[in-house]
Amino acid sequence: MENAVSAFLIRRRWLLLSFSLIALMAVLMALPNLQFNPSPRAFFGPDNINLQSLESTEDTYGRVNSAIMMIGPKDAQSPSILSLKNLIALDELTEKAWLVPNAVRVQSLINHQHTIVDEDELIVESLIEDAASLHQSDIAKITSIALAEPALVSRLITKDGRYAAVHISFHFSASNELEQQIASGEAVQALAVMIEEKYPQLQVYSSGTTISDVVNTQLAIEDTSKLIPLMYLLMFSMLAFLLRSILSMLAIWVVTISSALGAVGLGVVFGITFNTMTLTSVSIIITVSVAHCVHILVYFLHKYRQGEDKKAALQESLRVNLKPIFVTSLTTALGFLTMNFSEMPPAAGLGNVSAMGVALAFIFSLTVLPALLILLPINAKSAKGRDMTAFMDKVADFVILRHRGLLWFTLAFSTLMAVLAMQNIVNDRFSETIKKPSEFRDDNEMLDQQFGGLYNIEFNIPAMDVGGISEPEYLNKLEAFSQWLRQQPEVSNVFTYTDIIKRLNQNMHGDDAAYYRIPESRELAAQYLLLYEMSLPYGMDLNNQIASDKSATRLTATFPSADTHEVIALRERMLAWQNENFPEYMVHDGTGYSIMWSMLGRRALVSSIISSVLALLLISVVLIFVLRSLRYGLISLIPNLLPAAVGFGVWALINGELNMALMNVLIITIGIVVDDTVHFISKYQRARVEENADAAGAVRYAFHSVGPALWVTTLVLVSGFLIMTLSQFNPNSTMGLLTAIVLVAALLLDFFLLPPLLMLLDKKRV
After folding, report:
1. Mean pLDDT over each residue of the chain, to the nearest integer
2. ω before 345 within 30° of 0 (cis)?
3. Which of 218, 308, 528, 765 has the fewest CB atoms inside 10 Å of its own CB, making it the most exposed?
4. Spatial contact of 207 and 448, defined as CB atoms under 8 Å apart
């Protein structure tokens, strides 16, 4: 069958090339419609219970799209933020923040709604009116109020009064959310620069979800425009050097780029939304495509440079490589399709785009590549002294001579690495996705250091009925929870409605400190709230804290960035307290990105393992069927499983922490891991069947025929993925390093474990 197919591919090469290019051009027309979503929310499917909880809270209080601007003195010896010239700057920053595109709420010390009573009249006014006109006595009074108010300390001002924060909330329309996010984020960054230039004694730090999304988009563009081209430049330059043919490299380039762009185009056609994870499919497709092309080219060039006719050499290469390339493509595509079991939509998108790319790489390597190789004037002369087959023959002799020792050594080493791999822990700090040096990362850490509020947990606490938030029993339970939270060592601030109602109760009793407590009756609490709301200016209402029908309130606990297990443990303590002290109707699990990200990390690891195991089982079944051998199909499991175990074991020694990008390395590398194994076993089996070789002879034949291609493929791909470690986006950087480690492990195991294993199991077979 291989003879007939390879002959057809050569005979009908121009027709096949034309069909392939026409189909490719049709798919590429969809690329302008590509949708890119940098938001962390993209990682959560519509059925994710944590996302549903967040969206339910947002339906009540509005969606949280925010930016935080922290302002403080540059000089450690300078006065605090509560000095006249610094308050003037804070006043201007607050005023200008309202002009940022899409801003709907701005909160700072300047416009904090302070309450006082003049006889029987409740007066609600901004804490600071016209900062430029303040006297020292005014500033002293403002300082005493600001540093004594629980709702302000560690939220709008630090405990020592040196730094102040301005919180900006945005509303983005669903139709062009990304464009609006970018416009708002860039406006915030420009505002920070303007304030620093006008007030050189101050420094402004920017953070928040909106700024994070903008920075992630900028890094994705930077990686796409600079780093990824550098990665491919290195890879293809090495291909030209190792194959000793620039034209051969150009043929591979055409096939790989066509496969990658075609897959992205198909992804757009099928409505897949891309993000930083999904775009990783481009690198995966190129690795698989390079592997296919190298196998065909190495065998072709070997025959061609030995004096065979060009078409005959190419046809023979297609005949020899057709089955392993088909098997590799089929099994790899199946592996990627198992990513649809992941809870993360980007992981499913990554798997689907990669599977389509693998299919295109298979088609183009058999249609576009042969036509180009015949068309291009490739040099038939071989450069002396650089024949990799001779080196592979020496490796084969070494492996055959020492196969028993190598078998036990590699098994023992792999077992040790597998044990170490289980020591890795899931820890995905979304506040550290950007590598240092980075202004955004520095700003994040400074904000975290001063306010301890990069992470938060939101609670939507229901009351018994409409208007029930004024019920004393509800308010006292809510206050008890708030006070308990403030006693937790991790929590830096608690933003709760009870602070407002206690302050109003005190105000209405002549500012007597003894009345800084929950009102005694529902009617009284409701009247205080009504008076307060009627006095609030535009943009400062309580809709972000109280449900419109007064049936629930929002409580926010903020804390510094923490490890995944610490976030989960804190949330479990919070829930345990509620279950013990709240009536059932008040209990809320808590939501927010910190919770969502931490919970997703654990589930992503489980789904990644399930997907990988399922993929390997499917691959083994396919190999048993295609190779027509239960023995070889089962043997393939070992070199397909162990590279990941070795890679993650090495990672435990290097780092020991897994983020979500690393959890997908199992699936990302499966294509090349399986490619190496399938090609080696296929050549080994061919020698046993067609050449009637013994086990040692079959191993020598496999090394001679496929060893150079495996070496070239691994060297090129590892070099390319190591370039990814230069990315400022930490998930891409760590994924590049671990992928390179796994690919090296795959090559070493296919060279030093698989051949001894085949020889041991085949020693009694003639």
Report:
1. 86
2. no
3. 765
4. no
pLDDT at 760 over 70: yes
pLDDT at 381: 66
335: which residues sit within 8 A by CB, 6+ positions away? 612, 615, 616, 618, 619, 667, 670, 671, 674
- Cβ–Cβ < 8 Å for 706, 294: no
φ, ψ for residue 269, nearest 5 deg: -60, -40
Q: What is the pLDDT of residue 450?
A: 87
Strands annotated E in 411-474: 425-426, 455-462
Nearest Cα to Cα of residue 503 among 480, 525, 534, 470: 525
**pLDDT for residue 384:** 44
Using the predicted structure, report yes or no on whether residue 385 has a pLDDT greater than 70. Answer: no
Q: Do the beta carbons of residue 27 and residue 269 sit within 8 Å?
A: yes
Range name among 67-81, 212-226, 577-591 with the lowest pLDDT average? 212-226
Q: How many CB atoms lie within 10 A of CB 372?
A: 21
Give the separation between CA 365 and CA 255, rounded to whole angstroms. Answer: 6
501's tokens: 């109602």
Q: Which strand (E) or helix (H) includes residue 442?
A: helix 439-451
Q: What is the DSSP string of 567-631?
A: HHHHHHHHHHHHHHHS-GGG----BSHHHHHHHHHHHHHHHHHHHHHHHHHHHHHHHHHHHT-HH
Query: Residues 307-349: pLDDT tens digits?
Result: 788 888 898 889 888 888 888 888 788 878 877 877 778 888 8
Residue 383 has pLDDT above 70, yes or no: no
Q: Which two tokens stand for residue 380?
A: 């038939």
Q: How far is CA 258 from CA 267, 314, 336, 542, in A?
A: 14, 21, 19, 55
Please answer whether residues 367 and 254 qualify as being in contact, where contact means their C-beta atoms are separated by less than 8 angstroms. no
pLDDT, tens digit, 9 for 90 and up, residues 588-615: 988 888 888 777 777 776 776 777 777 7
- How large a percentage of the chain has pLDDT more than 70? 96
What letter represents residue 18's amino acid?
S
Q: Give the pTM.
A: 0.80
Q: Are strands 113-118 and 493-495 parallel, antiparallel or unpaired?
A: unpaired
Residue position matching structure tokens 């004594």: 148
3-state secondary structure of 38: coil
What does R_g of the chain's alpha carbons equal in angstroms?
A: 32
Which value, to the nearest 10 degrees, does the dihedral of the CA atoms of residues 397, 398, 399, 400 take?
Answer: 50
Q: How many Å apart are CA 93 and CA 30, to the nearest integer?
A: 44
List residues bridging with 495 in a β-sheet.
556
Instruction: Render the burial of 497-508: b for 16+ CB within 10 Å, e for the rest.
Output: bbbbbbbbbbbb
Give 254's strand partners: none
Does residue 572 sit in helix, strand or coil? Answer: helix
Cα–Cα distance between 570 and 580 in angstroms, integer?
A: 16
